[in-house]
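Pilot study result, target chain (160 residues):
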Amino acid sequence: MIEESARVVALDGDFAWVETQRKSACGTCAANKGCGTAALAKVMGNRRTRVRALNQPGAAVGDEVLIGLEERALVRGSLAVYAVPLLALFGGALLGQYLAGRLGLADGEASTILAGLAGLGGGLVWLRRFGHRIQHDRRYQPVILRRSGAPPGTWVKRFS
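Predicted structure:
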């Protein structure tokens, strides 16, 4: 489970909106001065991110909490967001190129580009439906594990 500390800023039924502080590991790296990621982290700053988390321990607004997300959910979500649209783009482009050759089209490049864009659009439509499908799936939700001041024995039962 991936864990992060946060502060509860609002309550919404069984969920709480928590705010996390974006952190960068660039301060401890030896290549800090010549790294593009370090420069980007300095430009972006230490902004806060709001996340909706399942509030099982009943945290209140202002509480410092520890939130967690299953690694499997992070990996699946990352693959859905990055890999599916990219694979759909390439698949559409390959299909467009194949069909242009089979149909003997003079401008095969234009059909390849159009089919690639159509594939990308299809991948994005799939991604939107996937997002709606997992929106209320508890396996993909961050969970408030415990209040920061609570003893370690008060951990919330994790979802399997």
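One observation from the pilot: The chain has three helices and five strands. A full batch analysis is planned for the follow-on phase.
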